[in-house]
């Protein structure tokens, strides 16, 4: 018997992830500090992020089923990720938490903390 909920369940599963990702990427593509890195198709990056976040929060391992090990640090190495860019990424995410209503969920603080940890690890260039 399953007597615990994953963070994925706690935040409202697929529906919440979809809203969050929809609110997040338009901000990223419009951010002057981040936009030079995002030249690819916004629909494809949204699709990847929905799969990744689902898995990251303990939902079905959708990302790995298609792409293998997440290895996020390694996959970000081609991009110059400075401390400022990590800060801007997180700021866009914070706004997306608000727009999607996720900020009202008691589990959102834990989710955001985990994103802060991963964002810090992704930094690979000085300012
Ligand atoms: C710290 C600042 C970050 C920057 C500047 C950044 C930037 C990028 C860029 C430029 C791409 C490639 C976009 C493309 O293919 O068009 C990417 C891909 C991706 N990022 Fe980030 N990222 C950051 C942090 C994060 C964090 C914290 C996560 C997860 C919690 C994340 C998850 C992903 C995923 C899942 C992909 C798709 C990987 C793939 O190609 O399979 N990123 N990111």
Automatic annotation (TrEMBL):
Short name of any one Pfam family annotated for the protein: Bac_globin
Keywords: Heme, Iron, Metal-binding, Transport
Domain of life (superkingdom): Bacteria
Name recorded for this polypeptide: Hemoglobin
Coiled-coil annotated spans: none
Keyword DNA repair recorded: no
Organism: Cytobacillus firmus (Bacillus firmus)
Keyword Repeat on entry: no
A GO molecular-function annotation: metal ion binding
Homology family: Belongs to the truncated hemoglobin family. Group II subfamily.
PANTHER family: TWO-ON-TWO HEMOGLOBIN-3 (PTHR47366)
Gene3D superfamilies for this protein: Globins
């Amino acid at each position: 018997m399953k007597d615990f909920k994953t963070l994925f369940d706690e935040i409202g599963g697929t529906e919440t992830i979809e809203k969050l990702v929809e609110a997040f990427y338009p901000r990223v593509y419009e951010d002057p500090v981040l936009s030079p890195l995002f030249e690819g198709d916004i629909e494809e990056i949204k699709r990847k992020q929905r799969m990744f976040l689902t898995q990251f929060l303990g939902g079905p391992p959708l990302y790995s089923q298609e792409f293998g090990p997440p290895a996020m640090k390694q996959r970000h190495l081609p991009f110059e990720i400075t401390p400022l860019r990590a800060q801007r990424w997180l700021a866009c995410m914070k706004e997306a938490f608000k727009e999607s209503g996720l900020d009202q969920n008691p589990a959102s603080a834990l989710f955001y903390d985990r994103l802060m940890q991963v964002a810090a690890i992704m930094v690979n260039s000085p300012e």
